[in-house]
Amino acid sequence: MSKSPIRVAVTGAAGQIGYALLPRIASGDMFGPDQPVHLNLIELPIDKAMAALSGVAMELDDCAFPLLAGMTCTSDLAEGFGDVDWALLVGSKPRGPGMERGDLIKENGPIFVGQGKAINDNASKDCRVAVVGNPCNTNCLIAMHNAPDIPNQNFSAMTRLDENRAMAQLAGKAGVHTTDISNMTIWGNHSATQYPDFENVKIKGKAGHDAISDRAWLEGEFITTVQKRGAAIIAARGLSSAASAASALVDHVHDLMHATKKGETHSVAVVSDGSYGISEGLIASVPVTSPGGGGWAVHQGLAISDFARAKIDASVKELEGERDVIRDLLG
Ligand code: NAX
């Protein structure tokens, strides 16, 4: 007998990432080739957004995906998050001209108060929540605090795009394929302070700084290229990354739903328990393993050099600053 459908809510479903993401979910890439899905597609209650969403839904119909059990298009949060098993929070306002990061945080924060409360009141009590809309770590923190009946461990923010970007850079430099690289940890915030850890990454089984002898490149160009990749894509394409962001979200959820390969880790921003000296309660990116089913544990015991410590501390400090800006939204 076929499995019963997983219900998945996606906010910002008519946006760029939504457009690249939804076919990947409906084709089975996220939850597996035998897992039907019902999509709850959530957009802003404005005509233009809802019209665009209806077009996206028509296209999904026209793909005739065998695993797509049904779709609900709505701007009503209670309906959109009703009984969902996963909530993928993609929609948020983009940063406008001249807007500082602090302004963006204040602007987008209230969205995640409302969505957190709606998830709390309407979703499955074991609903998992993945936040992509920026600033994703702090938005995730806000949603988590506003959904007190859902376990904190069910919330995560996406740094998988940064992990994948870092692997692509290392593969190019080392002349290997990304499949030869594992355990690429992104530490801290999904922002320009994030630290891609080249000392604990494995390239063909060797530590990154042994496989790539150009230490100056690792400490300089590698880190800044990963940190600023989003801006480079905007400069080249005139639009922010969408296909790669959607693909990273597929990887993020897939690798929480399926057990991590022995000895490997992935980067996920989760609520800190104080591990690795990261202030408790922040949503910070760390190396995790998953037993499958959406759970995770922080991978312990990585060696942190003085160089890495300073980078991680700077990113954590930025997250603490973001938390200070939205403290009144934490309930
Ligand atoms: P778009 O502007 O193309 O789409 C966003 C969509 O969200 C729009 O259709 C809009 O109507 C909708 N929306 C806005 N507020 C909403 C709300 N309160 N409820 C429901 N829908 C709402 O942006 P897109 O390129 O899809 O990017 C979406 C978000 O992802 C942005 O915040 C962006 O900064 C963020 N990103 C995060 C990344 C990450 O790695 N964590 C990387 C890619 C991306 O930059």
Task: Describe the structure concisely for a colleague.
With 331 residues, the protein is an alpha/beta fold. It is 42% helix and 17% strand.
CATH topology of the largest domain: L-2-Hydroxyisocaproate Dehydrogenase, Chain A, domain 2
- The run of helices and strands is EHEHEHEHEHEHEEEEEHHHHEEEH
Tell me about the largest β-sheet.
6 strands, parallel
Q: For the record, what CATH class of the largest domain applies? A: Alpha Beta
Distance between the termini: 44 Å
Strand content: 15-25%
Mean pLDDT over all positions: 96
Tally of helical segments:
11
Name a few traits of the molecule:
single chain; 331 residues; alpha/beta; 6-stranded parallel sheet; 3-stranded antiparallel sheet; globular; binds ligand NAX
Describe this structure in words.
The structure is a single chain. With 331 residues, the protein is an alpha/beta fold. The chain folds into two domains: 6-157, 3-Layer(aba) Sandwich (Rossmann fold), CATH 3.40.50; 160-325, L-2-Hydroxyisocaproate Dehydrogenase, Chain A, domain 2, CATH 3.90.110. 42% of the residues lie in helices and 17% in strands. Helix 1 crosses helix 10 and helix 4 runs parallel beside helix 5. The model has no long low-confidence stretch (mean pLDDT 96). It binds ligand NAX. Ligand NAX binds at residues 11-12, 14-18, 42-44, 49, 90-94, 111, 132-134, 136, 158, 161, 190, 230, 240-242, 245.
